[in-house]
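for the writeup, i need someone to sanity check this before i put it in the appendix. the sequnce is what the collaborator sent (i think, or maybe the updated version? ugh). structure was predicted straight from it, no edits. if anything looks off just tell me and ill rerun, i have time this weekend
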Amino acid sequence: MAIKPYPKNRKYTKLLPEQTLEHQVVCKTCGEKKASMEFYLQGAGRKRVRGSCKKCFAKKSRDRGRANPFSVMERHFGLTETDYYALLEKQGGCCGICRAPKNINRRFVVDHNHETKKVRGLLCDRCNKGLGLFRDNRDLLVKAGAYLEINGSYAQVREPTRYNIKEHTRTTPQRKFVRYDYGD
């Protein structure tokens, strides 16, 4: 027996005891009758299925993002497309930390204060992840800088251990140190 959806002004279909292949629901977007497992759960206690199936919901989301990629920035930070490009021009068209130029395939990430939601600038993906991993904590970043000053910003490159099959012994080549130059 199919579960009938609420009237059209409602977003969800009726409550389901569990999602199984036996429960059939009609998708409001494509009109196909599908198993309730092909619908996302939503609502209080996640006991209701969404009106659209997972496939239609994903297509809608993709289309919405393609139509206006700046809509998320505007919704979350109040940053319009013109504000974004003005901020990018102010930064010289590069990342606010490492000064790397913009990648052709990707936009810069909007860096913001998580408490006040105020936009701080535009960062490349690596710098944004780095700040996030340091939890936007200035003291941790200073300590990391001091650590690099003391120990040097060297990366240790080790060759894999080689085994001598005849003698059943292990030989490790000498370690090499390589300095990476980031153009600082």
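The CA atoms of residues 111 and 128 lie 7 Å apart. Helices lie at 54-67, 71-77, 81-90, 125-133, 138-151.
thx in advance!!
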